[in-house]
Amino acid sequence: QKRENLSPLCLIPTVTSPREEQQLLASTSKPVVKLLHNRSNNKYSYTSTSDDNLLKNIELFDKLALRFHGRLLFLKDVLGDEICCWSFYGQGRKIAEVCCTSIVYATEKKQTKVEFPEARIFEETLNILIYETPRGPDLALLEATGGAAGGGGAGRGDDEENREHRVRRIHVRRHITHDERPHGQQIVFKD
């Protein structure tokens, strides 16, 4: 009897086409966490920490999938244009995105830098759990947490409908010159 109640399998579909991705998103009632990682898109050489950070992103994805596989649908995508990008979907639409790559201008050449924004990924994973219930997210909770509305404290009105359809995108800052980087700090900006 105990064996029948346990679900020891954690299956993670790998997206093989954009059409398949759309079908998977449309066919599930669970929130979705998708990791796109594509090392074949290496236009520039990678920084010394990029390989480790890419592996850390993949390992975190696997850990989250094992922990939340009954509550969230996890997808892997190895075909997209980005090198490492997390996407979070609720009720069939993209809610947030965390891109982990940037171009760094070193003294001699451009390099691709892969970051590991662990705290941001955890935050967005927890935020996407708001969409777990089929009745829709609690608007008061979304406002309080800065969910799909893009920030808390905004009043309701005509702008509310537009805010609910926006995607929060978190990107590591693109085109960082060597002189712009604060020593030992990660630079992140929101669109």
Automatic annotation (TrEMBL):
Superkingdom of the organism of origin: Eukaryota
GO cellular component terms attached to this protein's record: Cul3-RING ubiquitin ligase complex
A GO term, aspect molecular function: ubiquitin-protein transferase activity
GO biological process: negative regulation of Rho protein signal transduction; proteasome-mediated ubiquitin-dependent protein catabolic process; protein ubiquitination
Protein's name in the database: BTB domain-containing protein
